[in-house]
Amino acid sequence: MLRGFGWRHAGRRNWAVRGVDLHIRSGERVLLLGPSGSGKSTLLAALAGLLPEDSGESEGTVTVGGRPGILFQDPQTQLVMARSGDDVAFGLENTGVRAADIWPRVSDALDRVGFAYPITRQTHALSGGEQQRLALAGILALRPGLLLLDEPTANLDPPGAELVREAIAKALDPDTTLIIVEHRVAEALPLVDRAVVLEPGGGVIADGAPEVIFAGHGPALAEQGVWVPGYPLPRFQAVSTPADHLVRAKHVTVRDRLPPISLAVSSGEVLAVTGPNGAGKSTMALVMGGLLAPASGRVTAFDDPKPPHRWRARLLAERIGSVFQSPEHQFVTSRVHDELALGPRRQGRSPAEVTRIADDLLSRLRLTSLAGANPHTLSGGEARRLSVATALATAPRLLVLDEPTFGQDRSTWIELVTLLATLRDEGHGILAVTHDDAFVTSLADRVHDLTPAEPLPRRNTSRFGPST
Amino acid sequence: MNTGNTKYRWRTIDIVIASVIAVAFGVIFWAWNIVWGATEGAFAFFPPAQTLLYGIWLMPAVLAGLIIRKPGASLYTETVAALISALLGAQWGAMVIPQGLVQGLGAELAFALLAYRSWKLPAALLAGALTGLSAALFDFFAWNASYALWDYRIPYALLTVVSSTIIAGLGSWALTRALAPTGVLDRFAAGRDRALV
Amino acid sequence: MSTGVLARRNPVAKLGAALLFSLPLVATLDPVTPALALLIELLALPFFGLRYAVVARRAWPLALAAAGILVTMTLFAADRSGSVLASPGPFVITTGVLRDALGLVLRVFAVALPGIIVFATTDPTDLADALVQNAKAPARFAIGALAAFRMIPLLTSEWQMLSLARRARGIDAGRNPLAKLHLFGSTAFALLVGALRRGGRLATAMDARGFDSGLPRTFARIQKFSPADVALLVVTALASGAALTISILTGFFNPIIG
Question: Which residues cross the membrane (chain B) (predicted)?
Fold first, then answer.
């Protein structure tokens, strides 16, 4: 299938993939492994025929028997149409399927992924997991012989991810070939019977049954950031007892987004806030971070008579550091170093101090070699570390983090958790919204569960009513 | 993948990015109205001040031309931007569509005059000026005919052209240069003018 | 969606009718033509299944534009003929000024309403389908625009997150308009970066589903251009012609050129 394959993106000196020889038989189920930067996604794109010659340079050959279909990570950017059924029909229209055959194939594909809504359902009113299953239906409707999955559940909460994996398992015909890229190996294992390990620029370094691969390469893979099952994670106990309250919320609500909630965070502790999607976790993080005004109730922090959402931004950044779920939201400059210098400079610190703080954070979060890079070009793990560093630059005593470990590989995960543990022991208070059980186990001193007593009402956010 | 690769054939990414530019500017305009809601009255009561806004409104035409570098990019993008504002319920109704067409045509003409070969600053300024001129001509006849010629119609038209040359022309050129290092233009020649990394 | 008889017409026919009705109105400056046109539009409204309150809500920003017109006319009116009604400061307000101002204000409303009515009753997907199937618009461009249109709710919530994130970084503008402008520019830039990145991924996902396969596309949803749609266009042309004729016969007609 692949012979001496290599690919170099336009504008890059290094090859994204090189020297890959791989033969996959029809009906095989393959897990593709390797550290970030080993070119797994590029390889999948090549197999899907999605590396146009104008975007880079290739060597070697790729031969694919059967129509490929590929599912990407981000459901938001895979859906094309406003109505669910139309979206599944999109690929069929493109490939010239007869109009009379389209709708039967659409409903068949929707059944196979367990899609529970009518075909007129607005795609943006679906949860991430539902969108991802809809995207899968759009691919299955084209009857691919080769199914390529590029971290299909990395952007989803655990229950949504579980449903997507179930849908994949159910949707596979015996003769469908599957190639999946997934950091969270334990979750992909039930789907595969072969594992292939890639090395950056080095081609295939191991190939065989998953058990054999993990016996031989497990430690190395775990070291490189792959979530290999059976490798324990560090646990961090608080060294001191929590002291004074930094922030306290009393009966706080936000209309339509957050039911009444009361909680407090003290210095020297990590409070994890958990709960299903739609329970208001992120909204609560915004309220506690002084970014959103509560509709009712009261937030008091740092013994200030004014609630945090009324503080000037500069004062807020000195007291509370917020880290958003998408790191890119927080980037405001064009260089990593400037990004870290910005906060201290606005605090009025001297140039020497600003440089010292920025350099210090760069080395603490292993970003020194990227000091001159544009923040928007960083990898997922690097961007996450930078967004945490920007929040630390103004030395706030309270940190509010929204899904800090979301979608991270094992190495970044351990780094983040270690850093947060250190910060806690230095006397910071940390509030983290998370649905990562491992994070809670490793770090949290207390857990506040936002799971409502009754099931959540479904909110219909559609702008245009259904028609057809 | 279709391999009928002529220089002027639009790839999927060209179509989608041009459309996304139109959509993003629709959202930027929506945000402008929220951020400047309090001062909007001043803009409405002193229409020449609106020509400042015009510069931003005309940006998609020049920006798409500079990024996509294909015939039709300016025309398509400004028309889609107009169509989108109508779909979002802009108060001006369907007239924004012919207006968008005319405005896109101005920038398109500038790039065509340069045979779709130059994408440097002078090209951007020319595109800004011509799209401003087309917008000014449209307004001169369609909306401003009842006003005094020398006291209002001519100054308004001149202001529109100046604002469009600076904001849509110079602004789009600067924006393209600022976007390239973020990597989002990697699949366009406009994004590859930067050094290898 | 709307239940009106006319709301169900082909989107291309509706859009064509809106343009057919609006364009002649742009050609004249008198108050009679737009007044007649407004009357016709308001009578047609119920047939689109729209309530007056809904249209009023969409059209209210025009009131601001109308106020702007009155101010500009006071300051810059070209024609100050007729008897003098008032003379605040150096400005002379005459019956001629008043007539032209009334014409402009009515015109703004009359020109805008058809579009407001049509777009309030048209689904973007249906419009794209009809543009391709009935108006021979290139399918890749229509679908590409439609796919980007779907991103709007995503981008509006993105704008809100970007604004909050800037506050979290310690950046706010307070009352300084220059700082406000700078902050706006930085947020808009970040929005554009995010939108273009998403656009790139979307284009790849569309190609993965054969968008650029070169095969002839088929249509899952059929849009028909029926005799009723032709009738809509003809009636619209007649109505707009009637309004113009009346204004010419009564001597009010005042073309923009000449």
Answer: 12-32, 52-68, 80-101, 121-142, 154-175
Domain assignment of residue C239, yes or no:
yes
The answer to whether B91 contacts C61, with C-beta atoms less than 8 Å apart, is yes
How far does C132 lie from chain A, in Å, by closest CA?
Answer: 13
Best CA proximity match to A216, nearest among A199, A225, A202, A228: A228
Residues of chain B contacting A54 with CB distance shorter than 8 Å: 5, 11, 187
Q: Strand, coil or helix: what is C35? A: helix
Amino acid at C143: I
Per-residue H/E/C for A334-402 = CCHHHHHHHHHHHCCCCHHHHHHHHHHHHHHCCCHHHCCCCHHHCCHHHHHHHHHHHHHCCCCCEEEEE
Q: What is the pLDDT of residues A343-354, one digit of tens each?
A: 999 888 999 999
**Number of domains forming the structure of chain C:** 2
Which amino acid belongs to residue B148?
Answer: A
Is residue C16 located within the same domain as residue C109? yes
Number of helices followed by number of strands (H, E) in chain B:
9, 0
> Could you say which DSSP state residue C221 is in?
S
Percent of chain A beyond pLDDT 90?
A: 60
- DSSP character string of B24-52: HHHHHHHHHHHHTTTTHHHHHHSGGGHHH
In chain C, whose CA is at the least distance from the CA of B151?
C76
In a domain, C182, yes or no: yes
In a domain, B197, yes or no: no
pLDDT over 90 at A446, yes or no? yes
Cα of A10 to nearest chain B Cα, Å: 7
Taking a C-beta distance cutoff of 8 angstroms, is the pair A214, A186 a contact?
no
Q: Are C104 and C182 contained in the same domain?
A: no
CATH number of the domain to which B123 belongs: 1.10.1760
CA distance C135 to A278: 43
Chain B residues 75-114 with a CB less than 8 Å from chain C: 76, 80, 83-84, 86-89, 91-98
Average pLDDT rounded to a whole number, residues A279-298? 93
Quick one: C16 and C50 in the same domain?
yes
Q: Is residue C116 part of a domain?
A: yes
Shared domain check, C198 and C81: no
Contacts of C224 (CB under 8 A, 6+ apart): C10, C134
Chain C residue numbers with beta carbons less than 8 Å from the beta carbon of B182 are: 193
The ipTM assigned to this model is 0.90
- What mean pLDDT is predicted for residues A373-388? 92
Residue B37 in tokens = 């809601």
Query: Residue A83 contacts by C-beta under 8 Å, 6 or more apart in sequence?
Result: A119, A120, A121, A122, A123, A466, A468, C125
Searching chain A, which residue's CA lies closest to the CA of residue C119? Answer: A464
In contact, B107 and B127? CB cutoff 8 Å: yes
Whether the predicted pLDDT of B1 surpasses 50: no
What is the nearest CA distance from B47 to chain A, expressed in angstroms?
Answer: 33
CB contact under 8 A, A377 and B184: no
Percent of chain A exceeding pLDDT 70 equals: 95
pLDDT in tens, A121-137: 999 889 999 999 999 99
Name chain B contacts of A376, Cβ cutoff 8 Å: 181-184
Domain range enclosing C164? 135-208
Q: Which amino acid is at A358?
A: A
What letters, b where the CB count within 10 A reaches 16 and e where it falls short, cover C62-81?
beebbebbbebbbebbbbee
Q: Is the alpha carbon torsion for A240, A246, A247, A248 positive or negative?
A: positive
- Low-confidence winner among A52-61, A381-390, B127-136, B176-185 (lowest mean pLDDT): A52-61
What digits encode the pLDDT tens for the residues C103-153?
989 998 999 899 889 988 999 999 999 999 999 999 999 999 999 999 999
Residue C257 lies inside a defined structural domain of this protein: no
Q: Which residue positions in chain C have pLDDT lower than 50?
A: 1
- Total number of domains in chain B: 1
Suggest the residue from A74, A80, A256, A347 to mutate for an interface test with chain C (most C CBs closer than 10 A).
Answer: A80
pLDDT value of position A459: 45
